Amino acid sequence: LEQSGRVKEGLHIHAPAAGTVMSIGARQGQFVTPGTELYRIVDLDSVWVYADIYEYELPWVKVGDKVQMTLQAVPGRTFEGNVDYIYPYAQDKTRTTRTRVVLDNPEGLLRPEMYVELSIQASEIPDQVVVPAEAVVRSGDFNQIFVLTEQGSFEPRKVELGVESRGEVAVNSGVEADERVVVSAQFLIDSESKLREATAKMMEPESASQEHEHEDHEGMRHD
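Request: output the structure for the sequence above.
Response:
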């Protein structure tokens, strides 16, 4: 307008970058201002994938971890990327923490708003004592594991557990490396009530023996 001094009916506006039009905010004959979004254009050669991580999974996930992704829209295909960012807050409704994964998309197979399944290859945690998850007897107050002693008996140990994955759980304290544990302990004692009952029965012989010795002592004193 400044150059020609004439009002033109049409004006060409070129997008600063190539991409895919995601939304159109202007129509023919519409009045627009500098704040009006005419078109939204995005470059889909690289996409962001958001994954919600549960609280118990957070200790495993680190920035840079490798990610494998599958989706129903592309059966039989696995996409690979890396964890790019872990958000510093949790979602208020789901109590999960969002992570961002960056994936290359040269073929355009990954489209916005798709649902995917992610498998994050967590970094190795060294120097951890690990036992099968089924070896842990979980009650409302504590967790314990039955350990085979040198005398051939089974000793219950209270344990503090760490991260758990794929049927195995880390033990932070209570069990040492190379100790043998009962793997199917929860099938022997499957509830807290049975645990208390079993403990009480183990204590009965000792209590009865002490009571018997006390009665013998009292009888000898009266005589």
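The helical segments are 185-188, 192-222.
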